[in-house]
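During the no-cost extension, the postdoctoral fellow (Dr. R.K.) reprocessed legacy sequence entries with the updated structure-token encoder. One reprocessed record is reproduced below for audit purposes.
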Amino acid sequence: MIAPIPKEIPDLPPVPGKPTLAPSIVPTAAVVAPAPRPGAARYRLLVALTAAAAVALDLALGSPARVLSYFTIQVNVLLALTFALSAWRSRAARHPLPPLVTGGALFYALVACLVYHVLLVNEPGPFSMTDRPTIWSTLANHVLHTVTPIMALVDWLLLTRPAPLGLRHATRWLLYPLAYLIFSLARGTLLPPTADARYLYPFLDVAHLGYKSTLANALLLGLTFFGLALLLIITDHIRPDPTRHRRRRKTGFRLRPPVG
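Re-encoded structure tokens follow.
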């Protein structure tokens, strides 16, 4: 038998206290669909082509195995790939790359720029990543260590929305410099003592400095890189959103992160 439906539903007991809703964060992408950004796409493609051209020039002037072993070359290959993919996503109205990737590419480019201008440019003898330093290798050096990092920074400040970045990004970004340190020391140990450019950077030259001084230099550089990563994170939290006015024109209203 089916129980009869009661004519009256008993009152529910009152909820103690004042009910409140916790604020929730709704990403802009959930409200506004991505739109094509041809201007950003063209600029990012220019960055990718500039980095790729400078790497190709160094590869043509020197030994590919040696050239590809340098941190700066690897970073510019990463820049070329990252900005080429970002250009395609901007053109095709796709969601941007994760901030771990875009912020990491910028961080590594700034690291290469900082190391070159603080530690290498004043070294006795011109620093070159090729076997025969020429005017073309000098030009490639300036593009790889100065031009592409500045172009990447301009893109981050003027064309990229704040992520925002967090401390977890800084700790993950440092994994690659740590892996490169291990690679550089292992490479120098495995090569014969008479090999040219056995250690790629003078501050990591175990043959002349010894392991104690080399690891001390590496620790000091690691702390400096961590400070640079923190500076990027702080800047990301306080810098204005360069795409804010564009989104207002598209939607007709102002978007605010806290909802609820």
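The chain has one domain: 35-238. The longest helix spans residues 206-238. The remaining legacy entries will be reprocessed before the final report is submitted.
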